[in-house]
Amino acid sequence: MKRHGNLFEKITDVDNIYLAYRKARKGKSWQNTISRFDDDLDENIFNIRDSLIEKTFTTSPYTEKMIYEPKQRIIYKLPFNPDRIVQHALMNALEPIWNSLFIHDSYSCRKGKGIHAGSRRTMDFIRAAGAGAYCLKMDIHKFYPSIDHDILFKIVQRKIKCPDTLWLLEDIIYSIPGGKNVPIGNYTSQWLGNLYLNELDQYLKHKHKIKHYIRYCDDFILLNQDKKFLRRMAEVIEVFLADRLGLRPSKNDLFPVRQGIDFLGYRHFPDHILVRKSTSKRIKRRMRDLPSQLARGEITADQYRSSIASTEGWLLWANSYNFKRSLGLAYA
User: Fold this and answer.
1) Cα 87 from Cα 79, distance rounded (Å)
2) Domain coordinates of the chain in residue numbers?
3) What is the spatial distance between Cα 31 and Cα 25, in angstroms, rounded to a whole number?
4) Half-sphere exposure (Cβ direction) of 88: Cα atoms closer than 13 Å
5) Does the pLDDT value for residue 324 go beyond 70?
6) Is the alpha carbon torsion for 122, 309, 111, 149 positive or negative?
7) Which run of H or of E encompasses 199?
């Protein structure tokens, strides 16, 4: 397997750091920290570059926040300057390399590989698997908090040989103490998580020749006509996750495809798609709260319109006319 070197010059290139800055500030230009950064933009950009070249950069302390939607988890936040800019600068160089390593049906955080692309591929697989097929659906118990730093860094070292880039990746990977946990909230975390589970992807596709397999983050499905085969694969996957990655599944569901596959926020049937019940409840709460949030000044008019448009886009993908009508979003 090819190992990539000579990456740090690209990461620390001033034009790349300017690009990283623009990506990191997208949709957040109203924040005071960004306004202050903009006041001395050139100097701040060069300071970031110098901190990388001189290796004085280190990941800042995290701010933690507990969220409860769609499930309870801790979100870790880093300062805009320098951390979020540095992470974008790093991934500008690494994204094309890591993208080339991933299988076609690994989704999440990749360009053209979002929820709707994954949903479309799920429907393709349902039809290709044929009538009477079964689905094995699994996910990982506390995936990001369970990622082992040493295992992850060894995987990274197999792909990257540039010492300076490895120095930066090591600093980010080990920025949380305790030997485990890739912080949800870091721009790099979804990419590192994808790289971690790429080990499973490659194992299933090349060792076991699994044809109908899709993974989105730590949720994945396998489709096959043979129920016993899928039951055996569940055992194989559990052993691989434990032995190679220090992970364990939290769910292991095996059922006929005709019952509908609850995946990516939708329920996929052979001839139609519905919005998942938990998703529809969350949408109802959000739509109910939006007007009062706007009235209290908690969100701007642009954010209000953006949220409405996002909801409409989500529902457009499913057979959801009656649900849209209940929200006042269906038009004759």
Assistant:
1) 11
2) 1-100+154-181, 107-147+184-270, 273-327
3) 9
4) 22
5) no
6) negative
7) helix 187-202
Of all residues in the chain, the percent with pLDDT exceeding 90 is 71
User: May I ask the CATH class of domain 107-147+184-270?
Assistant: alpha beta
The pLDDT of residue 332 is above 50: no
The pair of structure tokens assigned to 232 is 């055996």
pLDDT, average across residues 246-258: 95
- Specify the length of the chain in residues: 332
pLDDT in tens, 190-243: 999 999 999 999 999 999 999 999 999 999 999 999 999 999 999 999 999 999
User: Rounded distance, CA 185 to CA 76, Å?
Assistant: 5
Nearest to 101 by CA among 191, 5, 221: 191
Q: Provide the token pair at 130.
A: 């044929």
Say which range, 129-138, 242-251, 322-331, has the weakest mean pLDDT: 322-331
Pairing between β-strand 134-140 and β-strand 219-224 as defined by DSSP bridges: antiparallel
SS3 195: helix
107: which strand partners? Answer: 216
Round to whole Å and give the CA distance between 143 and 127.
30
Do 33 and 81 touch, CB atoms closer than 8 A? yes
Q: Choose between 323 and 216: higher pLDDT.
A: 216
* Structural contact between residues 183 and 71, judged by C-beta atoms closer than 8 angstroms: no
Q: Classify 325 in phi/psi space as left (phi over 0), alpha (psi -120 to 50) or beta.
A: alpha
Tokens representing 251 are 């769910």
Instruction: Tell me the Cα Rg of the chain.
Output: 22
Q: List, edge to edge, every strand of the sheet that includes 273-275.
A: 261-263, 266-268, 273-275
